[in-house]
Amino acid sequence: MRRLFRLLKRNPAPILGIIIILTVLFAALFGTHLAPFDPDAMDLSNRLKPPFWMKDGNWKHLFGTDMLGRDVFSRLICGTRESIVIGISSSFIALLLGVSLGMRSGYLGGIFDIVVMRLVDIMLALPPIMIAIVLVAIIGPHLISIIIAMGLTMWSEYAKVIRSRTLTLKEESFILAAKVLGSSNLRIVLKHVFPNIIYIIIVIFTLQIGTIILWSTALSFIGLGGVTLSWGWDIAAGRIYVSTAWWLSTIPGLAIFVTVLGFNLFGDWLRDILDPSLSKEL
Fold first, then answer.
1. What does the pLDDT look like over 222-242, one tens digit per residue?
2. For residue 77, which of 242, 233, 252 has the smallest C-alpha distance?
């Protein structure tokens, strides 16, 4: 704990990331109770009201209202849940697929390794958003389809990194000793390889949540989100009012920026404290 506090004192940026993540998670869990208004309740008599700090704005609607008179602040809070659910769920799917393929590919090698690595090369050569668009178009624009599509799109990063680390580990003396003692491949992978790559998994998982939130927002922006209560949907709906009601797109855009920044700051810090090669320098 003293070391962690010393690292935080030296670089306070992760504190900001932790605060952002906790705030976003709290909003995702209790957004419906925190929102002052029903996010889908329309009031055309109050349409396009500016935020409280602008002329004609008021504290009743902190961030103003949209073209249908819906409270922007309420939609911002309630839209957090979709982004967090997609980010965590998709990254978990990518983790399961990428880690299992990466460890098996690196440890066993052979034809399986060649096939997996060629698939990884193909996935890394194509833009992730293009793959996700194709998958969502095939499956259908729903929340579940976005989660599956993003998970199937992002697994290659896990596989490539985990394979590389597994190739290094399987030549270590403790792995060779386990083989001499008659341990099975499954036991070696689960008891000796996996514990030595778990820090990599945690770091990639944390960093990927922010990336997936960004890409899923892009899918919602182009109409493939399947959910009308999301940050991407609000940005898309407000883009035609940018010159007269800039807050409709700007405020959800800032929410995306801050959320992704928080996960990236926290992920970078985790990498610094969990990676043995970096922690020795600290």
1. 877 766 678 888 888 888 888
2. 252
